[in-house]
Specification:
By secondary structure, this protein is of the alpha+beta class. The protein is about 45% helix and about 20% strand. Strands 11, 12, 13, 14, 15, 16 and 17 form a seven-stranded mixed beta sheet that branches. It has a three-stranded antiparallel beta sheet with strand order 6-19-20. Strands 9-18-10 form a three-stranded mixed beta sheet, covered by helices on one side. Strand 12 (about 240-245), helix 8 and strand 13 (about 295-300) form a beta-alpha-beta unit. It is globular and about 100 Å long. The chain starts with a strand and ends with a strand. Belongs to the TCP-1 chaperonin family. Keywords: Acetylation, ATP-binding, Chaperone, Cytoplasm, Cytoskeleton, Hydrolase, Isopeptide bond, Nucleotide-binding, Phosphoprotein, Ubl conjugation.
Length: about 525
Amino acid sequence: MALAFDEFGRPFIILKEQEQKTRLRGLDAQKTNIAAGKAVARILRTSLGPKGMDKMLQSPDGEVTITNDGATILEQMDVDNQIAKLMVELSRSQDYEIGDGTTGVVVMAGALLEQAEKLLDRGIHPIRIAEGYELASRIAFEHLERIAQKFEFGLSNTESLVQTCMTTLSSKIVNRCKRDLAEIAVKAVLAVADLERRDVNLDLIKVEGKVGGKLEDTELIYGITLDKDMSHPQMPKRIEDAKIAILTCPFEPPKPKTKHKVDIDTVEKFQTLRVQEQKYFDDMVQKCKDVGATLVICQWGFDDEANHLLMHRNLPAVRWVGGVELELIAIATGGRIVPRFQELTPEKLGKAGLVREKSFGTTKDRMLYIEHCANSRAVTVFIRGGNKMMIEETKRSIHDALCVARNLIRNNSIVYGGGSAEISCSIAVEAAADRYPGVEQYAIRGFADALDAIPMALAENSGLQPIETLSAVKSQQIKENNPFCGIDCNDVGTNDMCEQNVFEALIGKQQQILLATQVVKMILKIDDVISPSDF
């Protein structure tokens, strides 16, 4: 793009390869951008809440994903439009920061764009709308602080944490076992949490899945599982009080780095080479035995001769273990990863109370369980399910529940779910609009209407009359001055979310409002779009 002037000094813009570009300016650009944002929000709207629908996505190589998670749906969708990509990033940032509420944040942004479109039609300038939204988001943010409640929890009193995780899991495909999965998630987070610093390292929680069994067989293992078996079928399948040598060096004779050639022209020379090789293996196995190891876990493979020798010397071994698993085993057992046999010492061995091999069903699938570790701060959630898609979706659901439990340990304030927090914020923002004399008050009222989109979508997805239900709950909140009234999605018979135990983390809700407002402001400020045309 270049700027030029004609003979009267009037500026005009020259576009390079103009015939290959399309250009939208002013109101047209804003309307097009808003339409793109709304289209993405419309897709996710039906996935919101406990009665939300799932989406089935097929990748170019034929892999099928069935999911209810907003971030996953948008990640897998092939989005071309730049504004739609902003919505994908919005949901991704909510996923990275909070881990939950990825659908709600996009629906919220879509509703704000819809309201902005009405205000633009009235002739209000986009900057004034953006400023009004900014003011309104601040009012809503502070109002959430006011209606939030703190709850106490400890290692023995985890009920409130479990209830909050159950709220997250109720909108997923796994909601029939939500109590069990919520308890597993809370126990896993508390096992690795540092309660003094109020911090949780989710890398210490490994989520593994295996097809077969039923969802109810999902278990929490205070240790590590490996999708491997012993390297020799005759090695013992159960080792108690194991001392584990964790090696990253292969069980094989050293290879010279330079190019080499060995000429063997007599049987004696071959025999000498064989004896030499065997001595290497003997020394390696002996070193492991000398330091007192009762199990060897190796990152690399070893050939049949080494395997045979290990079997004869009663030293069980596991081969081809990945780097991430090795690190987790080292953390869990308190061992050190040893890169050379010469460096093996008794202090570097990891300790585990029990190492056992477990087989599943009629297949030859076997897994190793390393349990009762010296440092139980690495745990594994082991998921079972009828098919691969079910296990993948359960992994995503467990991830959301783990993130929610982590957020509550960081900040133990909660607001009530079921759309009650949004309705309460909507009432507060509506009331605050009268205090602003300028054009911004229209935008603030628009923001209040947009907040109603989430409870409205919840009611719609639950098969209730959306407008009727929303107005009934809103009037109940105003009459009783009770910010805990929400949409009764599960038909329990009460609108009070406090009685229904539907909680959400305060920081998750606040983040949703802030992120949605930021993205909408960004979209409203774009007034000129130059893009390559389709041909």
